[in-house]
Predict the structure of ABC transporter permease.
Amino acid sequence: MSEHGAKRSSLAASAQAMGRGVQSLWLLAALLVVWEIAARLAGSLFVPPVSQIFAAFVDTWLSGSPSSLFLSDQFRTDVVPSLARLGLGYGAAAAIGISAGILIGVWRPAGAFFNPLIRLGMSVPVTALLPIAIVIFGITSGMNVFLIALGCLWPILINTYDGVRGLDRTVVTAAKSMRLTRRRYFLQVLLPGASPAIFAGMRISIGIALVLMVISELYAATAGLGFYIVSQQRLFRFPELWAAIVLLALLGILFNAIFAVVERVLLRWHRNVRPEGAESH
């Protein structure tokens, strides 16, 4: 393809992406208008109009001074602890999951031995372990971090294992014929080859981490977004409750967008080697 043709293709792809974004914004705007009208007509205490939710969102989370980036005291009291727990749990799951996945993927006996146990662990809902975690850790941040880490561990571990086991046999054979050192084989063959699967598992785990963060805080926390949601529900302050839900949705969108950028930068080579027509539609 010529340079001129490549530029035209890139511009066309950008235009299509922009068109899809505009369509999504129109749909979102229409849904918000319908919500506003329906909520005002119904007069429900539990589902307030969008305008009230937006006002509560600004007042609750963005009423701070410019020196604090407009973040309120409530944001620092409830959101910062939640994000700290999420980061610790997700980071621990990523470190353990990637390391263990590579180990059992490379060492066949370990894979054969641990694979049934891993599948069993995946089949147990992490939320069912909440009462046991409370007994062991108490109502502490350690309990929240433990549940988040345990829930995020399995997708990362399984995807890492599948990525290592699914390496191109031709590439592996070529690497062995070149007698690469273990370090070079790991850095130049194994890790790049398994990285698309690893990133897929890590991206799935972002949503799981958010869900488990909220669930663990709903039942066992003295601060955090989940704790804040429960407290507002008990006080019948539903605009503030919905404002917390909106904040959670925005955090999920932000984390996925950041991860997509990181993945696009680090796995640029993977997109370049895919055959034409492999992109999703």
